[in-house]
Amino acid sequence: MHKRNLEVCLTPALLHLYDFKASIVVVIDIFRATSSICYGIENGAEAIIPVATVEACESYRHSEFLLAAERNGEVVAGFDFGNSPFSYIREKVDGKTIVLTTTNGTHAINLSRGASKIVIGSFLNITALCNWLKTQPNDVLLLCSGWKDKVNLEDSLFAGGVVHLLKDEDYHLDDSGIATEDLYNLAKADLNAYLKKTSHSERLKKLGIEEDIAFCLNLDVTKSIPVLDGERLVKMELE
Amino acid sequence: MHKRNLEVCLTPALLHLYDFKASIVVVIDIFRATSSICYGIENGAEAIIPVATVEACESYRHSEFLLAAERNGEVVAGFDFGNSPFSYIREKVDGKTIVLTTTNGTHAINLSRGASKIVIGSFLNITALCNWLKTQPNDVLLLCSGWKDKVNLEDSLFAGGVVHLLKDEDYHLDDSGIATEDLYNLAKADLNAYLKKTSHSERLKKLGIEEDIAFCLNLDVTKSIPVLDGERLVKMELE
């Protein structure tokens, strides 16, 4: 296999700098959209439809779909649920299609359209994801959703975790990949403790979602890789 | 003093996310523009005029000014010099005004206009810069020039070094500040060795500027803080 590029785009605001037409884009929004998408797909959700706006989500109101809308960390009034992973348990999502809009994650997914393939990453499926990436000939772009276009530490750490797991494969890394892997190595012994020093963590604590946070930092709870198929995120069929 | 914000903008492409009207912006382009500006001002340059384009630099051709133009790491043909720090020694610049355009650094300076104050940082003046920042009531935004709007490691490391030196002052850090300080702590024992693993470093090696690189990583060779006064970077008068 030729030497592939493995790059890290630290926020969607930098995505225009990357040529990702032939790449696999891994969308990352650890707290909590992509963690919940991985968990929901693992738990039997038929599909998750990422939409950009609350209005677009609302337009599915009279369908059989579940509607999930989060803004600024909270469930939008009138919606079934937001992006807490505990809303994506088997009892709630098995066999269902969910329409989802979030502050950062679904925005990043939509910006990635045009990539060779768009997949969803989180600590929950990190090893399954990396094992699959290794088998693919494509360059890889890890797209951190960030927080309102600013860089955040949890998405950066996950990108670094992927770099760490792929490193033996001899990808060509960019500076962001080198930096995030070093941060991941610093933090990996206790991701939650490391992230406690961020301001983001204080904000999330105010939202009362510490259990969500702890859950989203579990490695390898799931094996599914959500992949975008048209408008729908579905479970990738692995050979 | 109230609790000040200390934020790190990892590339000029993210500057629009920050409200810096009341802030001190520290412009950072370690390889090599801001290192050379610090060195030139320390060595008696009367002023350095940062301009955006080679054409703007050319327009000063028939003045008494020295003309410095760099693009893609090389001196532009027909110009006195580019951004090698060794062009900014006392014998060459004492008492002179230099008009300078570079790939990344002068772009970042120009984008920062509108800040309360714009100053120039590099490892060469890091302690002098931080000692001065401590005395100022303003929020601080560390602006990494990056490489063509992408994040680079050397500018990020310097930002982390500033965070490290200011940390006892109880600034409020953002996630980029936390991340870059951790990277600086990893790298500080041997900055040059740490940076050797970057792809940027390979590119710079091809340019034959390893001596420049090594020089730009020296701490506290200078004490001057270049500050933008109208169109000119001049030596800040410290009390």
UniProtKB/TrEMBL annotation, chains A, B:
Gene3D superfamilies: ComB-like. Pfam families: 2-ph_phosp (PF04029). Keywords: Hydrolase, Magnesium. SUPFAM superfamilies: ComB-like. GO terms for molecular function: 2-phosphosulfolactate phosphatase activity; magnesium ion binding; sulfopyruvate decarboxylase activity. The keyword DNA-binding does not apply. It catalyses: (2R)-O-phospho-3-sulfolactate + H2O = (2R)-3-sulfolactate + phosphate. Its EC number is 3.1.3.71. Its cofactor is Mg(2+). InterPro entries: ComB-like, ComB-like_sf. Belongs to the ComB family. PANTHER family: 2-PHOSPHOSULFOLACTATE PHOSPHATASE-RELATED. This is Probable 2-phosphosulfolactate phosphatase. The lineage of its organism: Bacteria, Pseudomonadati, Bacteroidota, Sphingobacteriia, Sphingobacteriales.
